[in-house]
Amino acid sequence: MTSKTVLEIRNVSKHFGAVKALTAVDFRLERGEVHALCGENGAGKSTLMNVIAGVLHPSDGEVLIEGAPVKIASPAIAQSLGIGLVHQEIALCPDATIAENMFMAATNRRRSALMNYAQLERDAQAVMNRLAPIDVSQKVGDLPISSQQLVEIAKALTLDCRVLIFDEPTAALTETEAQVLFGIIRDLKARGISIIYISHRMAEVFNLCDRVTVFRDGRYVATEKIADVTPDDLVRLMVGREISQLYPDKPHPSERSGEPILSVRDLGDDARFRDVSFELRHGEILGVGGLIGSGRTEIAEGICALRPVTQGEIRLHDKVLRLRRYSDAAKAGVVYLSEDRKGSGVFLDLSIAQNIAALDLKALTSLGLLNSRKERVLAEDLTCRLGVRMGGVDMPVSSLSGGNQQKVAIAKQLAVDPKVIVMDEPTRGIDVGAKSEIHRLLRELAHAGIGILVISSELPELIGLCDRVLVVREGRIAGEVSGDEMTEEAIMRLASGIGSASETNLKASGHAA
C-alpha cells in the first residue's frame, strides 16, 4: 500500500456454487489514474467491479479504501464511500424520466416528503448537457440504447466519487459521443478522481489509460504501465495464446455462386426507412454500416417482421415471403439477433438450455410435453460449438458473463437451422478471443450456405469480416463498397453524405482533386 493508493483488493475470491468467478485476485488503484482492466469474457472483470460496487459480496478476501478495510454490503454503502459504477448492461428504470433516474440514489436518501421537480430537472439537464443535448424530462424507456448508455454515464457523474468504474462505456456510443466521454474522463483524472476502465477496444485502452491489469479465468495475471506494453503483448496476456488472425480468410469471388438467398426490393415503413433494395448472396457475409440512428436496425427489424413495413417485397430463395410477425419469419428461416442482449437477446432468468430451445419448442415437444433430453443435447452441442464458458446448460443465463450471454443468444438463432441470420452488433462487448471465434463461426455458416447479414458500428469489423458493405444514411442505402473500395474513409463518407465510394477512393489515391 502506498500513500497514493485509493483502492486495494487483497486476495478476493467469489464463487457461484461450483463456479469460481474470482480466485484470490489482487488489484490496486492509485489516486488520479485511469487504470484499464482487461481480459476475455468470463475472466472476472465485471464480477470484481460488482464486488467493489457492493452489488456482490466476496466469498473471501478484503477491500481497502485509503488503507482501511471496508465491508461494502450494498451499492448504497459503495456510493457513501465514494465509489460509482457505470454498468455494461443498462440498469435504468424505463418508466421513470431521465432526471429521476439520474438522481434516484440522492432521492432515496432525502428526508423531505416533497420533491422540487423543477430543480431536479435543471440539475439533471446541466449534467446531461456535458454529454449530449438530450431532454431529461423524457422517459428512459423511449430512448434508443445509445442514449440510455449516456444516461448511465450521466447518473454516475452526479455522484461525488473518488473512484469511478466504467464497464464497456462506449459499446453503444457513436464515435462523437465516445470522444466527449474521453474528454470528461481526462477532466475527472485531472481533478484527482481515480478511474477503472474496462474495455475490449485496444485503441481506447492505449489512448486513455495509464496502467493496465489483466485477468484470465478469474485470476490475476499481471499489471503493466501502458507505455511498457503493446496491443499484441496485452492480447497474449489476456488469452494465454497467440491470436494470429482476428478475421478468417475471405473466399475468392469465384467461390461464391452469386445466386441470391435473400432479395429485398423497395422496402419501406413510411417512417424510418424507404426504397431499400439489396441482395444477400450465397457464400458471402454482407455488412451494413452507417451512423447510429441512420435506420440500420429499423431495416433489419422490417426484414424480420419485428417492425411493420408498408411497401416493398422480400424474397427468400426467390419465393415471396408474407410475414405478419417475427414467428412467421423464424418459421421461414429468417432470424434476428438484437443489439440489446439484455432486453431482447436472452431470457436472463431461464436456463441456458431453455434459452437455446426457445425459438422452436415444437421440434422438442411430443404429445404436448417437452423432451428435456433433446433440449439438453441441443444446448450442449451448440454451447460446445460456440465455446460458452459455463457450469452447465441448466444454469441461468444471468450467471454468465456478458460475452457468454451473447454466445447463448447466437446459439438460440442457430437452433432453428436458419437460412438467413440478421445480426445487429453481434460482437458488442465481446473480448478479442471471443470475437475471433464468432467471426470464424460466421464464415463457416456462410460457407455452409446460410445467409449472414451483419450490422456493426465497428468499421474494422465490417472491413475485416464482410465481403461487401451496404452503407445506410437517413433511412436509405447510400451506397455499397467491396474489394479495394472497402476502406474506413469510403464508408464514413457515404455514411455522412460527403460523396460516393468511388470518389472517396480516387481522392485517397491522389487521382482526384
Automatic annotation (TrEMBL):
The protein's name in its UniProt record: D-xylose ABC transporter ATP-binding protein
Family annotation (SUPFAM superfamilies): P-loop containing nucleoside triphosphate hydrolases
Membrane topology designation: Peripheral membrane protein
One Pfam family it belongs to: ABC_tran
Domain ABC transporter: 7-242, 256-499
UniProtKB keywords: ATP-binding, Cell membrane, Membrane, Nucleotide-binding, Repeat, Sugar transport, Translocase, Transport
GO CC annotation: plasma membrane
Similarity comment: family membership: Belongs to the ABC transporter superfamily.
One GO MF term attached to the UniProt entry: ATP hydrolysis activity
Protein location: Cell membrane
Predominant cellular place of this UniProt entry's protein: membrane
Annotated SMART domains: AAA (SM00382)
